[in-house]
Structure formats: structure tokens, C-alpha cells
Design a protein that fits this description.
Blueprint lengths: L1 E5 L10 H10 L2 E7 L21 E5 L1 E2 L8 E2 L3 H8 L3 E4 L6 H11 L6 E6 L11 H11 L2 E4 L2 H9 L5 E2 L28 E6 L8 H9 L6 E6 L5 H10 L6 E3 L8 H6 L3 E4 L13 H8 L4 E4 L4 H8 L2 E4 L4 H13 L1 H18 L2 H15 L2
Parallel strand pairs: 1-2, 1-6, 2-3, 6-7, 7-8, 8-9, 10-11, 10-13, 11-12, 13-14, 14-15
Antiparallel strand pairs: 4-5
Helix pairs in contact: 1-13, 2-3, 3-4, 6-7, 6-11
């Protein structure tokens, strides 16, 4: 079977791992298309080498609106390309309302023998979009045979949109050869005996609950801890101001941008990860991939009850949940974790076991390949 995958996330090489596994397990003729010179929202270039072991061909096509996940589109004559290549399956690793998804879906629909078309979705709030995105979304829903929502909540949103695609829930997978516990022979975060290493990994934006985190940590001055922050964003200055106001700025280290493949090293060096995201009018946490990565690395999580965070934590048993925006509750969760190393170990063990059974690239790739094969019949 000949399969086309179009994916802006695969500009980060680690995200190609699941497709490399599909190719390894099935032997399909796999073609991966990614944007040439893709940049993230902070201007970091994510254009990398291919994932080791990826046997399919990777093409890099130029895009307009580089870095904009929804607006970007490929500078490519898709109709001629698809007609020439004759794919059996096309999977858009994009939302159904995205411009790039509409581009490829429309070109495929005009072929005499269109491929089985499918898409990805992480949108867990039922929204109505203005034209032309609403037009694109309706067309894609009518023209698709399969879809890979990242959670049951997302699947219910797609059902409410009357998609004709058959939905197969596929969580964002991790590669256990990349995300695994490291030995602490040479600590990445040097700290005093009895000092708890708390970590935050993600964008530095208000919706991630950094204000609540600053307030919670200010309530823990009597505890021995250090916070290590990995990520960039326009809220860093305000976060630092709040930490200074709380008298704890000197206990926090900012590491800025860290390449994705190095994140597991940092996660493994933490005693616990905090994920204090806060629901907004048009957004709530869609999956929380860093939670799965942390648990795979043997690190327990303290997360808010925004979106999919409490679902992941409750299913896995890999952490504690607190009510979003509740600084005292977050402080209590951190205090519990800090004071009970044995509990941290139990939660870490449960979380890692769940990830290995449910969230690896092998497990998810098998699920995706089965759905693609059925759609192509």
C-alpha cells in the first residue's frame, strides 16, 4: 500500500517515530511531506534530519505563512502531484479546519480514483469557525474515511460535527527508547540533600497557570525545593516578577528552549513535574504530552483538572490532580510529593507502566495502521 502523510509536527524529528514504526511493521511504501524550514511560534527553527530508522521518503515542500499551524499552506500543485503518485491512503497530521488539510483534501477529491483520506484532531471544545475555515472543515468531514482524535473528548466533538470519518482514538505516542529513566550519576540539576527538584516544561504563557504556580510556591517557603523551568514565551517577565514578589525568585532557574530530544534528560532529573494549565474561554488542555513523557521517564506529575490532564493522570495513576487556579491546593500537592519520596516512587512506577502498555509508538502505530488499512478497502 502506498501512503502519504503530510505533517508539520514532523519537522521535529521525534514526531516521525510513529510513522517509522508503521513503515517497519507494515512494509508499506510511505511518503512523508513536511514544511521546508518550519519555525515554531517563537521563531525557533525545527527543521531537522530524518528520524533514525525512518525508511520511507521525506519531502520538504515550501509553505506560505510559515509557523502558523492553521493558516500555513504548501506551495505545491497538489492535484498533479497526487495524480502522478497514486497514493492509496492520505493522512493529514493536521486539524480538519486547517488550510493545508483543505488544500490536499480538495485536490484528492478531484482525482478519478481518490485515496482514502483521513486527518488528526486535538480540538476538545465544540467551536464554530468563520469562513473559510468552516467551509474547509465541512468539506473535510464529508470527504474523510478515517480520523485520529487524540482523546475520547475530541472524538465526541468530531461526532457532534457530523464527520463521516471513522474515529480511532490515538494518543500522542512516546518512544520508550528516548523517554526512559536516566541514572542520576551526574545530576543535571545539582541540589542539596533533601531538596526537591520541581520541574515545569512548556510554553511560558498565562494559560499554562504560571501565576498560580508562583502563588503556590510562595506558600512553600518552609520546604526545601528548587524549580527548573524549560521553555520560552512572552509571559516569562511577568512570571519572574511574581516569583520576586513572592520572595522565591532565587530558587528558580530558567533553561529557555531545549531541543525536544533532550527533554527526557531533564524530565528524568526532576522529582516531580507540575502542569498547572488553566482553561480559557476558547481553550483547555488538549492532551498534555509532557505528562506522558514525564511518566515514561519515571517522574510523577502534579496537574490541574483542565481538559485532558485529569483524565491522563487518573487513568495512569501517575500523579496527583488539583483544581485549576487553586494555588493552596497546588501547594498542598507539591508538599505531599516533596515530603513522601515513597509515594513519588509508587506514582512514578504506575505511570510508567501505563505508558508502556498504552502510549508507545508501537502501540499507537499498530492502531493507526489498522485504521488506515480498513479505510483503504
Amino acid at each position: 500500500m502506498k501512503v502519504l502523510i503530510v505533517s508539520h509536527p514532523c519537522a521535529t524529528a521525534a514526531n516521525q517515530a510513529v510513522f517509522a514504526e508503521i513503515r517497519r511493521a507494515t512494509g508499506w511504501n510511505l511518503r512523508l511531506v513536511i514544511p521546508a524550514g518550519w519555525r515554531d511560534e517563537f521563531g525557533n527553527s525545527l527543521d531537522q534530519n530524518d528520524w533514525p530508522g525512518l525508511e520511507g521518503r521525506v519531502d520538504r515542500f515550501p509553505v506560505a505563512f510559515n509557523g502558523n499551524i492553521i493558516l500555513h499552506c504548501y506551495r505545491k500543485a497538489w492535484g498533479a502531484y497526487l495524480a502522478r503518485e497514486g497514493f492509496d491512503v492520505i493522512y493529514m497530521h493536521h486539524e480538519p479546519y486547517a488550510t493545508a488539510t483543505g488544500q490536499v483534501c480538495f485536490a484528492n477529491s478531484r482525482l478519478k480514483s481518490p485515496a482514502a483520506f483521513g486527518y488528526y484532531s486535538a480540538q476538545n471544545i465544540l467551536k464554530s469557525y468563520p469562513p473559510p475555515f468552516s467551509w474547509i472543515e465541512r468539506f473535510v468531514h464529508r470527504s474523510s474515511r478515517f480520523a485520529f482524535p487524540v482523546s475520547e473528548t475530541v472524538a465526541s466533538v468530531l461526532a457532534a460535527k457530523n464527520t463521516l470519518a471513522r474515529c480511532t482514538v490515538c494518543p500522542l505516542p512516546i518512544d520508550p527508547t528516548v523517554c526512559y529513566p536516566r541514572k542520576a550519576d551526574a545530576p543535571l540539576f545539582p541540589h542539596a540533600a533533601g531538596e526537591t527538584v520541581i520541574g515545569y516544561v512548556g510554553r511560558l504563557v498565562e494559560s499554562k497557570g504560571l501565576g498560580t504556580l508562583a502563588s503556590a510556591l510562595a506558600l512553600l517557603k518552609d520546604c526545601a525545593w528548587k524549580l527548573h523551568v524549560i521553555g520560552t514565551g512572552d509571559w516569562q517577565a511577568e512570571f519572574e516578577r511574581l516569583l520576586s514578589q513572592g520572595g522565591i525568585r532565587d530558587r528558580v532557574t530558567f533553561h529557555s528552549f531545549v531541543p525536544h530530544l533532550r527533554i527526557p534528560e531533564y524530565l528524568s532529573a526532576m522529582d516531580l513535574l507540575v502542569v498547572p494549565s488553566e482553561t480559557q474561554p476558547a481553550w483547555k488542555e488538549q492532551f498534555g504530552r509532557v505528562i506522558v513523557e514525564a511518566m515514561a521517564c519515571g517522574t510523577p506529575v502534579v496537574g490541574s483538572d483542565s481538559g485532558e490532564i485529569p483524565v491522563l493522570i487518573s487513568k495512569s495513576g501517575g500523579g496527583l490532580v488539583f483544581p485549576e487556579r487553586d494555588a493552596p491546593a497546588l501547594a498542598a500537592g507539591i508538599r505531599t510529593m516533596a515530603g513522601q519520596p515513597a509515594l513519588r516512587g509508587q506514582l512514578a512506577e504506575r505511570g510508567r507502566k501505563w505508558v508502556l502498555e498504552n502510549g508507545t509508538v508501537e502501540v499507537v502505530a499498530r492502531r493507526m495502521a489498522t485504521a488506515m488499512e480498513e479505510a483503504a478497502k
